[in-house]
Amino acid sequence: MPKLGVNIDHVATIREARRTFEPDPVAAALICQLAGADAIVAHLREDRRHIQDRDIQLLREVIKIKFNLEMAATAEMVRIATKIKPGQATLVPERRQEVTTEGGLDVVSKHKSLERPIKDLKGKGIVVSLFIDPLPAQIRASAKVGAQAIELHTGRYANAGTGEEVERELKRLVDGAKLTKELKLRVHAGHGLTYQNVANVAAIKGIEELNIGHTIISRAVLVGLDKAVREMLALVRINNC
Ligand code: PXP
């Protein structure tokens, strides 16, 4: 049964639109926790466009479920993460111009620059996950570079236009999850998942965690965060083991 990690970056995005104190992503995280979420995800970006340093410090203190810090594999972020010590760090590529994380990490060509950050994070007891496209070469390279988990990028599945494309992208995720388990890594998935498209991914054998943000916070604006989280949990908690 996959677990649900709720990404609260979008709550901080609303706050930063006015550079004020509300809505507070820490308060949002506590509501997600009360509603039954299994983890809280927050991405501290280099440009601090949404989540701030103060947020991750407070999240680490008040959240009792897993705290998954999304971050670029830079010296600055590794320094912050090893001080805060989230339960998990998910390494993502980061570009200032992008609206959201666009592609997965290119572990095949960047493995040298990932070795040190992964070692340092693991050295502090932080589980390291790499956000990658569901491609066998990237999965194998992730195992080789020392990651303990990978997060399969579901963006192409989410954006698939035709039934044929959906089937093709879903198969990539199914095969990717299978290979990842064979390599003895944990499999997570996320990006672009919605209330409408999540069921097929939640049903994939081996996927242990889904990280979902935009659709939950969007629904929360209309129906409330507690209800939005519970409705997503009902869709995610499909027994696929
Ligand atoms: N996983 C990763 C690695 C991400 O970067 C994001 C977006 O911040 C998500 C999951 C959640 O994506 P979405 O907001 O589209 O649900």
Characterization of the model:
The chain has 241 residues and is α/β, with parallel strands linked by helices. It has one domain (3-237): TIM Barrel. The protein contains eleven helices and eight strands. It has helices at 9-18, 25-35, 53-62, 75-84, 107-123, 136-144, 155-159, 163-182, 198-202, 214-223, 225-236, and strands at residues 3-7, 39-43, 66-71, 88-91, 127-132, 149-153, 186-190, 207-212. It is globular. The protein binds pyridoxine-5'-phosphate. Pyridoxine-5'-phosphate is lined by residues 7, 9, 43, 70, 90, 92, 100-101, 131, 151, 190-193, 211-215. Residues 7, 9, 43, 70, 90, 92, 100-101, 131, 151, 190-193, 211-215 line the site of pyridoxine-5'-phosphate.
The CATH architecture comes to Alpha-Beta Barrel
Count the beta strands: 8
Q: Class in CATH?
A: Alpha Beta
Task: Give the overall pLDDT as a whole number.
Answer: 96
The domain count comes to 1
Number of helices: 11
Q: Write the element-wise H/E pattern from the N-terminal end onward.
A: EHHEHEHEHEHEHHEHEHH
Form type: globular
CATH superfamily: Aldolase class I
Largest sheet: 8 strands, parallel, barrel
Task: Give the SSE layout.
Elements: E1 3-7, H1 9-18, H2 25-35, E2 39-43, H3 53-62, E3 66-71, H4 75-84, E4 88-91, H5 107-123, E5 127-132, H6 136-144, E6 149-153, H7 155-159, H8 163-182, E7 186-190, H9 198-202, E8 207-212, H10 214-223, H11 225-236
Parallel strand pairs: 1-2, 1-8, 2-3, 3-4, 4-5, 5-6, 6-7, 7-8
Helix pairs in contact: 2-3, 2-11, 6-8, 10-11
Residues 7, 9, 43, 70, 90, 92, 100-101, 131, 151, 190-193, 211-215 line the site of pyridoxine-5'-phosphate.
